[in-house]
Amino acid sequence: MTLPDAMRAVEISQPGGPEVLRPVTRPVPESGPSDIVIRVAWAGVNRPDALQRAGAYAAPPGASDLPGLEAAGEIVAVGAEVTRWQVGDHVCALLPGGGYAEFVATPADHALPVPAGLTLDQAACLPETFFTVWSNVFMRAGLRAGETLLVHGGSSGIGTTAIQLATAFGARVFTTAGTAEKCQICERLGAERAINYREEDFVEVLKAEGGAHVILDMVGGSYIPRNIKALRTEGRLVQIAFLESPKVELNFAQVMLRRLTITGSTLRPQSDAAKAEIARQLEEKVWPLLASGDLGPVMDSEFALEDAARAHARMESSAHIGKIVLKVAG
């Protein structure tokens, strides 16, 4: 397949607010020996994109400086070492960057087939959140059937994914959200109880249930010592982001006395091999649930690629429920 020399894209013109996102023309990326090039139909919008835009989350060495960590579309080129994929295959993929563009290159092992029954816009919502939730809640924290999971930010893309996955694998799920509407949606997705954090104390709710085995948190700051109180003995706190602060004063006596585990991760800096292993586990254990309709992405809104600034403003307003996507190609 002959590819054009140039493509439409959206770049970060300088660190700042959503207004610094600017439509540009860029060269079409080439595939390395183990890469694929995807003609992007839809790209997901995620909090790390906004952090990168603000100058707080630099792209790793060798990655595109364009934002965008997930996309879905058609493979248009494959590297010499790639054996699984062929030109014309439809995939969704975790990206090192560059998703806000008509074409993007990514390691072939980070791509997954579009689950049966899902459209490309739905598929573009999957990689970043499902990789993040699976690796942190199941691989890192070891959530098991019958255990209790507390998910903060239950109406976010991460939250709606975590609620569904944990429920599907037999856990009891509690979550926090900021409005009655968001709480209702979380409960429809499978949460046993959605706690309006503006009206109730999640610590007291979880203590009444015996405490959480696992807490997935992206707030940080003042939530960290409260999370420690909400965990049961031998509970596990998994930190994946900081909407508040990464710095807090914490009494570690409770960590020792109750044998708690505090862990966490960010996805983008991990090795290609680590991401490939997450992809392998997702395809084996989660993709069949997507194909059967037992779980699926919750979608909030879509914007044209050139309207990426509006998409970021929507995400940062926290009014959204679920995922926001950019339409790149028809």
UniProtKB/TrEMBL annotation:
Does the keyword section mention Oxidoreductase?
A: yes
The protein's name:
NAD(P)H-quinone oxidoreductase
The Enoyl reductase (ER) domain, residue ranges: 16-326
- Which Pfam family, just one, is annotated for this protein? ADH_N
- Entries under SUPFAM superfamilies matching the protein: GroES-like (SSF50129), NAD(P)-binding Rossmann-fold domains (SSF51735)
| Keyword entries, A-Z | NADP, Oxidoreductase
CDD domains attached here?
A: p53_inducible_oxidoreductase (cd05276)
